[in-house]
Amino acid sequence: MPYDKLSELPDSVKNSLPKHGREIYKEAYNNAWEQYSDPGDRKGDASREETAHKVAWSAVKEKYKKRGDQWVRKDS
Asked: All domains of the chain, ordered by start, with CATH?
């Protein structure tokens, strides 16, 4: 199900990403939720939710990298 607010994101996202990263995650997740509504558009037997989470993390990784336990902007 799409997220309306950053506070609704999973704890694993809220507790590890800075605000900008959470914003990227939310927008990418919501877009993927709509884009992959048809099971034929997903890889294998992945659920709509699983696919949306994978897309969201991929979007975050375009701008952020993990340094130790922290996610930091790639330009840092």
From this structure: 9-73 (1.10.1740.70)
